Amino acid sequence: MVGTLVLTRHGQSEWNKLNLFTGWKDPALTDLGKEEALKGAKNLKEGGYTHFDMAFTSALQRAQTTLAIQLKEIDQEGIPVTQDQALNERDYGELTGLNKDDARKKFGEEQVHIWRRSYDVPPPGGESLELTGKRVLPYYEAKIKPEVLKGKSVLVTAHGNSLRSMIKELEGMSGEEIVNTELATGVPIVYKIDEQGKVVDKKILE
Hints:
This protein is an alpha/beta fold. It has one domain (2-152, 161-204): Phosphoglycerate mutase-like (Rossmann fold). The protein contains 8 helices and 6 strands. β2, α3 (61-73) and β3 (81-83) form a beta-alpha-beta unit. α2 packs across α3, α4 (100-107) crosses α5 and α6 packs across α7 (160-171). The two termini are 27 Å apart. The mean pLDDT is 97. Substrate binds at residues 9-16, 22-23, 62, 89-92, 100, 116-117, 160-161.
């Protein structure tokens, strides 16, 4: 019995466009972000991934809107959708709302690089990727993984760092490997997972 897990990072948001640390703030998608979501959904359709038993997303509208665009395009708007802040983006703490260039001027380029690219060093008042994983993974293990292990098809549309937490677990990556893993906006990643939880196939639908 093989289940399907599809992970998609939301399309470009208004704050992505402005190069701001976003975290738990809730800006909308840009027009480009909506186009990215639609393109990813069309790639799902072309790949034959048009039946899902359920979907999960975060409590933030950029992920929810991306998911809504996906479900409409593949004619799956009637499936159960669960929204939970456990799948929210990493909390950037005091960096939230700052332009990334301004943050480098304020805190120093090396320090900002450490906050962004280390696995276990959080920004002031925020989460490291390690801490994000400690929030995301219990939810994944309790709510998402059991459904996939039953052979179901599950769509998760969320954020770069909440998805990295799951990908690290799925692919057995080190902290260093996962922080250097880039996820393109709107691009679905399809995992086939057997009943023991082992990934037997992976496709990126670009």
